[in-house]
UniProtKB/TrEMBL annotation:
The modification N6-(pyridoxal phosphate)lysine is found at residue 191. Keywords: Aminotransferase, Pyridoxal phosphate, Transferase. GO terms for molecular function: pyridoxal phosphate binding; transaminase activity. The active site is at residue 191. This is DegT/DnrJ/EryC1/StrS family aminotransferase. Coiled coil: none annotated. The keyword ATP-binding does not apply.
């Protein structure tokens, strides 16, 4: 059997172990230290816009803290893009708040500004303005931020950008994660850079970053003994993990370029295949990191479904995966409100994520092309 080709696997650059070794040599084996500070600085320099970054244990923890810092309370409503990974929505429920899910639009697969405004109006009519809204840059594709930021301003609702999949992506030249009141990043094992596990909260001010770090380290008051006036969390990033992050920052741009090259490969491969659309930027305003390359398959034209293609690839030991199943279709969220039509649902039915790692080799790409073409013909 051939080696397994993964959807997206960790890709080390080579200097990660140097930073980890430094942590051992200086005994900073703790959830603080020079690598944590260094990784934060690296991220701040990278995303610019004078953002401040707090490194955390996971992207999910970052969303949780963003919601707490937004002041979301029991029974309040938070709007969330339906088409996403469950980690975007789960932290809403940690606070006893209620997610309201919103459909996607077809250009970017991200939250539809029209349905978004409907959802806000719907909540206001019930006498409950949503406290915050979570917008996702799915698969590294920037959402329509001009329209979304305008809506957030118009209704004075806190904007949280889930940029877990979008580090290195930009909209009109500005980095994803820096448009909202908060942005969140993830360094999980399959993301564009990985620290094995980890995340970050992007804040507008240093004061907000310090508040996030305070909550992430058990909310200790300033006293010689352990004193607490607020509920805290154990969400800070380890200095070992941050060392991997510092090494990964040195290859981030390279990883973005390689993932974009994969997208180009799929666009060429499917160029003459009717009924298969490779997901790509709608206009030059959008610069995707193409974290995952995805296709939409119209089975009536192709004669095969996305599941046929997935199984064909699986037979050849190549991993592919359906798009995220929308949250409003998930059993766990079945009682939540939903605004929209069937765009996200249709994408889920027809869409497939293809191997997209920055570590794919030419040989891997040949194997993928061969496997796909067996079905396409
Ligand atoms: C990965 C991911 C997260 C969660 O990040 P973790 O670091 O795994 O907790 C959140 N949202 C989206 C869209 C993701 O892809």
């Amino acid at each position: 059997m051939n080696n397994k080709i993964w959807l997206s696997s960790p890709h080390m650059g080579g200097t990660e172990q140097k930073y980890v070794q430094e942590a051992f040599d200086t005994n900073w084996v703790a959830p603080l230290g020079p690598n944590v500070n260094g990784f934060e600085k690296d991220l701040e320099n990278y995303i610019k816009e004078e953002s401040k970054v707090a490194c955390l244990a996971s992207g999910t923890a970052a969303i949780h803290l963003a919601l707490i810092l937004s002041g979301v309370k029991l029974n309040e409503e938070v709007i969330c893009q339906s088409m996403t990974f469950s980690a975007s929505a789960n932290p809403i429920t940690y606070l006893g708040a209620k997610p309201i899910f919103v459909d996607s639009e077809l250009d970017t697969w991200n939250i539809c500004p029209i349905h978004l405004e409907d959802a806000i109006k719907g909540s206001i009519e019930k006498g409950k303005k949503p406290k915050a809204m979570i917008v996702v840059h799915l698969y590294g594709m920037p959402a329509k931020m001009d329209a979304i930021v305008a809506i957030a301003k118009k209704y004075e609702i806190i904007l949280i950008e889930d940029a877990a999949e979008a580090l290195g992506a930009t909209y009109r030249g500005k980095n994803c994660g820096t448009f909202g009141d908060f942005g969140i990043l993830s360094f999980n094992g399959n993301k564009i850079i990985t620290t094995s596990g980890g995340g970050a909260l992007v804040c507008k001010t240093d004061a907000m970053k310090q508040k996030a770090i305070f909550l992430a380290t058990q909310a200790r008051d300033n006293a010689p003994h352990y004193q607490h006036s607020e509920i805290g969390y154990n969400y800070r990033m380890s200095n070992i993990v941050a060392g991997i992050g510092r090494g990964q920052m040195e290859v981030l741009d390279q990883h973005v370029a390689l993932r974009r090259k994969n997208n180009q490969f799929y666009r060429n491969l499917f160029k003459d295949v009717k009924g298969v659309t490779v997901f790509a930027e709608p206009t030059a305003d959008f610069y995707s990191n193409h974290w995952l390359s995805c296709v939409v398959i119209d089975a009536e034209i192709t004669g095969f479904t996305r599941e046929d293609l997935r199984l064909q690839l699986e037979k050849e030991n190549i991993e592919a995966r359906p798009l995220w199943k929308p949250m409003h279709l998930q059993p766990v969220f079945k009682n939540c409100e939903y605004y929209g039509a069937k765009e996200a649902e249709t994408l889920f039915e027809k869409g497939l994520c293809l191997p997209s790692g920055s570590n794919l080799t030419d040989e891997d790409r040949s194997r993928i092309a061969e496997a796909i073409m067996k079905l396409v013909k």
